[in-house]
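We emphasize that the prediction below concerns an isolated chain of 446 residues; any contacts that depend on oligomerization or on bound cofactors are therefore not represented. The input was used exactly as deposited, without trimming of termini.
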Amino acid sequence: MVVNGAAIAILLITFFIMIFLRFPIAYAVALASIFCLLYMGLPLQTVCQQMVKGISSFSLMAVPFFITMGVLMGGGGISEKLLDLADSLVGWMTGGLAMVNIVASYFFGGISGSASADTASLGSLEIPMMVSRGYDADFSTAVTITSSVEGLLVPPSHNMVIYATTAGGISVGALFLAGYVPGAVLAISLMVFSYFISKKRNYPKGDPFSAKRFWKQLGKSVWALAAVLIVVIGVVCGAFTATESAAIAVVYSLIVSVYVYKGLDWKGVWKVLEQCIDTLSIVLILIATSSVFGYCLTTLHVPALAATAIEGLTSNRILLALLLNLILLVLGMIMDMAPIILIATPILLPIAQSIGIDAVQFGIIVVLNCGIGLLTPPVGAVLFIGSAISKVPMEKVVKATLPFYVSMIIALMLITFFPDISLALPKALMGYVPSTVCNWFIAPGN
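Result of the prediction step, given as a token string:
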């Protein structure tokens, strides 16, 4: 294997320089790739060819459909109904509104699949509501932004579709099922920390639990929750592909938003779709330019070199797993989620599989690490959205979020070292057979 060290240096150094200079990530990826290709003497037609190849995938068509579904449902008036459902379920607990916030994010994540959408939609309702009931504004913001990460794990998540395609055609249905329990683990972890903070600060409880109220709110929310069932059950049962299910879900979401919940009229639909196009253009240009970057990495044998370098540091599987998480967390601090998945997956997945982490389990690990990255400066898109909504300085929000970082890292470690948290549902409902699973507490060969 011939190593072109100068080309690798040009590719990576120019990329990270532009990242730190706050270039838009798509421009940084594209320009670094162009400089690298020019140095290697390859024609610039390669850029266009790889960009087209990157987005010419039937599976990736599910991404714009899922984004459209989330935007339609988010603008269709379901936020209040999901909040009321969560309130009827956990509002009676100490720190009731914090618990409602976390559970509502679990429900809404299944609709939007986006932490940013969760924070922007539910946060504008939840944060003022919590403050008016006596909760501190920084605590309210911290709960809102950290719980929004659940939306990345709970299906349908377009980021999981991107990961499945990048990782080489992994079952989207298995990934969808794999996200439910980790999402619940994250939610429970956040609720435990919220409970102790609420107890210490004497935050109020809500109304006592009422089964009658719960069933009433469930009846009102069933139309929204059914969208998730259409996607997940359809894909898992093999009735249709992820792309077909996403298209059906868009039509369903349109009907529910306009005719059932009546949160949108047809004029509002066009306005929402305009916003959707903005999001889609960002995601698709990232996928296209990252395809060129990935081509450069592969041509220069960077994945193999990185695997050799990382595995050369230690032979301890636990330390390697921790190192993979650390790399993803650091990348999350300086890059957006989609390019991390597109660039890091081909490099890190083979290492993960070599130490016994299944590809589906690793997908959940990647998504959660990227989600934590959305809350960490200097990029921290969700952090900025939460701060803007609550009008609390970002420094105070970060300080209030520190205990929740701990809870999220605990959830991440559980998901990393207990594979069945991710794999139990795919194995039980789809007969999924993991390619490799490591028992972390038994030495290799025993």
